[in-house]
Amino acid sequence: MRVLILGGTTEAFQLAQRLAGDDRFDALYALAGRTQKPLLPATTCRIGGFGGVDGLARWLVDERVSAMIDATHPFAAQMSRNAVEAAAITYVPLLRLQRAEWQLQPGDDWRIVADMAAAVAALGEQPQRAFLAIGRKEVAAFTAAPQHSYLVRAVDAPNAEGLPPQSQVILQRGPFTFADELALLQHNRIDIVVSKNAGGTAAYPKIEAARQLGIPVVMVARPAVPHAPECADIDAALAWLEELLRPEAHRE
Ligand code: NAP
């Protein structure tokens, strides 16, 4: 069965690796091409956009894809929308593999905001030392608040013109440990953390470290995406694919 995995997350990579070793499946792993040295699974890989809903729909038909798993990051909302629409056009079954959101724990001090513009506003007027752990794409929003100084962490360097004036960039790819995150926040005298509610374990230690130090977190809520069948782990995604392999599934 040809399976398209829309990737870019740890779970997407792990699912692709599982399918790569399973000769019932012929998995295709798709990435947008944002990172310079992406982690690629041992499946056929395709890098670059499809060209919107129509491009994806055409590609699904041309490549005879029988199932699509949207395992993109919860903040990759455009790709998730496109997947829902293309699945509806082509009747290719779609499953969204998405980790659960982080939940507020005792001791957390979160300011939950709807988007990055609201995150900028949540930093307030008084100068602060903020840790931006949001990837590089949306760092430019913080040029609107140049009174703060920023520690920006990303996998690849953000464009210099999109950086706020008082910025320091560190290039790191997760997973991160609690001890390292604690040291990073302390060493850099961070007053406030800005994070997306990504979910999962790899990026969570910064939230735990902020809790330990009593540092507030501006938590950007996930963007809304249209409904699709969902699961939260790789085993459930595999079970969904196996169900599609059953002969009865094709008669319905
Ligand atoms: P996005 O805004 O939802 O998507 C913008 C466009 O990029 C899509 O319309 C599509 O182009 C292309 N695209 C996105 N994901 C793709 C994929 N897996 N395969 C092929 N094309 C893809 O996406 P984004 O937020 O820029 O994220 C891009 C990638 O980075 C995704 O794979 C995502 O999983 C990963 N990622 C994102 C974040 C984040 O915070 N946003 C964090 C970690 C990883 P066409 O319309 O031309 O098809």
UniProtKB/TrEMBL annotation:
It comes from the Bacteria. InterPro entries: Precorrin-6x_reduct. GO terms for molecular function: precorrin-6A reductase activity. It is an enzyme of class 1 (oxidoreductase). Its EC number is 1.3.1.54. Keywords: Cobalamin biosynthesis, Oxidoreductase. Pathway: Cofactor biosynthesis; adenosylcobalamin biosynthesis. It holds the Pfam family CbiJ. PANTHER family: COBALT-PRECORRIN-6A REDUCTASE. This is Cobalt-precorrin-6x reductase. It comes from Hyphomicrobium sulfonivorans.
